[in-house]
Amino acid sequence: QVQLVESGGGLVQAGGSLRLSCAASGRIRSISDMGWYRQAPGKQRELVETITGGGSTNYADSVKGRFTISRDNAKNTVYLQMNSLKPEDTAVYYCHCRVRINTGPWEYDYWGQGTQATVSS
User: Fold this and answer.
1) Which of 6, 42, 51, 107 is the most exposed place for a label (fewest CB within 10 A)?
2) How far apart are CA 96 and CA 35, in angstroms?
């Protein structure tokens, strides 16, 4: 079993910053892709930023130049630095990891519980 624990959400004024963290634990052999997704009220869950094991990133146009994803493989942790926040960034942010567990060669997708980020105008 693998667990993802998120932290770092909160309430911030427009133009401010938040740093989200997601730590994976459990029967982990390795982690390939890691990323952040978000879901605002009344909207579908959307990709924010992802990062592969090789360090390649993918991101939504709406966060380009403002958000930065990073990972610490020694800690099995992925981060999302969010700067210049806008009210439209308000959402529940979910961590995602594609994990190879120690019971076999297969990979599985795991999701965190979500952390709320609220940006006031």
Assistant:
1) 42
2) 5
